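Researcher: Here's the sequence for the chain we discussed earlier.
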Amino acid sequence: MKRPFSNLKVIEYGENISAPYCAKLMAGLGAEVIKVENTASGDKARINGPFPEDEQDIEKSGLFLSLNANKIGITLNLKKKKGAEIFKRLIETADVFIENNAPGYMAGLGLGYDTLKEINPKLVMVSITAFGQTGPYRDYKAYHINSCGAGGISVGVGNPKREPLTMPLSQGGYESGANAAAAVMAALLARRKTGKGQFIDISEVEVWATTHAGQNVMTFLYRGVNGIRRGIHGGRTYPNEIFPCKDGYVCVITPQGEQWKRLIEVLGTPEWSKNPKYRDRRTITGQTADEVNVLMIPWMLEHTKEEIFKICQDKRVPCAPIYDIAEVINHRQIKAMEFFVELDHKKAGKLKYTKGPCTFEKTDWEWQTAAPLLGQDNEQVYCERLGYSQKELAGMKKSGVI
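Model: Thanks. This is the structure I predict for it:
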């Protein structure tokens, strides 16, 4: 069956995670994505690992490979007059333009939205930055740690007796990329009615403030209470904990009183559970959670995470094993969902890649090609599509345009 975005033409001029991930989601649903990279070294993600067999190569970056499957790859120097002219030709027939450069960067090249919409009034352009296109922080450079702090997420992450923490890895890039993709889809629906495109401003800080930090923000707005770091005590009712066990960790949560009673039975109704000090779970949550953890951990350490999971499952106690990445990849549930697909890359070889974040009944994700080599499709795009001759192509390469 025809995929939902099979007639959509997307231009991506972005680096690292947010813009490439946004474009990847659209490519997986059938959009034709032309990825425009700088002529010298391409997307900065190319120098970030992991690399297969630890062999550093701009064509073998695991980050780049995972974010850029199903894309057509070209190089183009937009700072050159000829490069800007060629870019405008690409925009003429595009539906969507995705970028994550600093605010004002595209306008400084003469390729801002005000210029591009004159070329193509139906164009939907999305810009992803840390702080957005307006405001006093507009021109501040920022990384994941900065946006977590400014977006209200770090204040709620970590041990309450220690300093705030950032979210692990580069979640802000993926979150803002996913939100950008959703916003683009909404703008495309609006275009059906108006016949016109529009500009979309995605701020990573706003993404944090409306997703993970949303509860912290609402709690402050409605109750005047700042975010609270709970550390390993994640919930409002004990236990909402991650416990060490014989071969790793398990998460145990009992929001209901009956579940707590059944958990005590799982533990063999130890003597400490009869102590009035440990009967009121509100008191435990606020005052003695660390003490109760110490009392529960010995039983946990006598069992593997699968044993604990099975025992808790039989007793209807909410519990989940904490899997490492190898266990996730090889888990029978993940395999049943066919979550991974294998693609053959010209230099990196055959590798596994994740599919999309959801499953469609009739039009699922489809990964056909691995990420492009740097400038891999220059001839196809410039000669076959735009009509430049081989001689002109050679001249553009020599002059640094491509």
